[in-house]
Amino acid sequence: MKGIFDLEIVNEITNELGRDPSGIIGILQRVQETYHYLPGEIFPYLASQLGVSEARIYSVATFYENFSLEPKGRFVLKVCDGTACHVRKSIPILERLRRELGLSETKATTDDLGFTVETVSCLGACGLAPALTVNDQVHPAMTPDKAALLLGELRARLAAEAGDATEAGDAGATPPDPPAAAAMTTALDAGKGDKQ
Ligand code: FES
Known about the structure:
Blueprint: E1 3-4, H1 7-17, H2 24-35, H3 43-50, H4 54-63, E2 75-80, H5 83-87, H6 90-101, E3 115-120, E4 132-134, E5 137-139, H7 144-170, E6 187-188
Parallel strand pairs: 2-3
Antiparallel strand pairs: 1-6, 2-4, 4-5
The structure holds FE2/S2 (inorganic) cluster.
């Protein structure tokens, strides 16, 4: 699978947030919200926009744990395995999700980039244990069966989103060509390895 990076998106973000190098973190957060990770392919262009070195972008991207340089799924599920959640049986929840999605400790993201399953040490919601988050939304008092039901809902959302995209294509919607200066696209080889 290939990923295409439209640098017009970078322009939109920097137009809105400004091009002050002190705003790198906020800009990278917006990029990650868009792509669900930080594609290194856009770093040269972003560096030129901010007037900083590419190495500086990388250093910020790798310093903060919340940033990921590896592709993640449309839905990122974080299963808490902190003490409160662990004693309330968070591991069977994690195992059920991984089994349903064909994932493992070494493969955290599905090949279609639909789902990523990770663990975290504490979500700060110990009173709701065992808890997990889906794209940072907390789901309390989970069980393996509840997690499987939740997964079904998320799969339905993915299918609906795919259907919407197909309908847009059937309607003949053709994306406009981006401006030449921003039209550089890069392709990302699939399966570069999933980061835990
Ligand atoms: S240990 Fe799971 S939310 Fe704190």
